[in-house]
Design a protein that fits this description.
Elements (H helix, E strand, L loop, with lengths): L2 H29 L27 H9 L2 H9 L9 H18 L4 H18 L6 H18 L4
């Protein structure tokens, strides 16, 4: 058998397989096509925009969990990193800080959630590739510290 006949046979077999695959896809698509009767549309579930918290900690406990642990020093040390493009090491560190803040937010009281989200936002922006302002981090920490002090936190 000549080479051209082999190529022709291979092309014919390939076309047959391709057509049978298309027919199978068309059959599957008809399974999802409405049959003329109206299909009831369910309303999409609402997107949760605010963080969900267990409320396990009150304001002073949340302040204590933030200000007396390593988290606040990690946040402070990495605040300058949000002003530029993150390399691999910084991406890991910034991601860890964001996740740690998220875990704390999951246990925080409602007042602390807003403050901790303000601290976390520049880190998330940096992870998304946006450039954030380090002053936004330090300003959010200072504002949160003032709210904590006002609530009776002594740390």
């Amino acid at each position: 058998m000549s080479t051209s006949k082999n190529w022709a046979t291979a092309a014919l077999v390939s076309c047959a397989l391709l057509l049978s695959g298309c027919a199978a896809l068309e059959d599957m698509a008809s399974d999802f096509t409405p049959s003329g009767e109206e299909v009831a549309q369910s309303a999409p579930s609402p997107v949760v925009e605010a963080p969900v918290s267990t409320g396990e900690y009150d304001l002073v406990e949340t302040c204590n969990a933030f200000f007396t642990t390593r988290l606040v020093s990690d946040v402070t040390q990495l605040s300058a990193a949000v002003a530029g493009t993150l390399d691999e090491d910084l991406t890991g560190s910034v991601s860890t800080v964001s996740k740690s803040l998220g875990l704390l937010i999951g246990k925080a009281d409602e007042v602390s959630i807003a403050h901790l989200e303000a601290v976390r936002a520049p880190f998330d922006q940096a992870l998304d590739g946006s450039i954030a302002r380090p002053k936004a981090v330090t300003g959010a920490i200072q504002t949160y510290k003032a709210a904590c002090t006002e609530a009776g936190f002594k740390g």
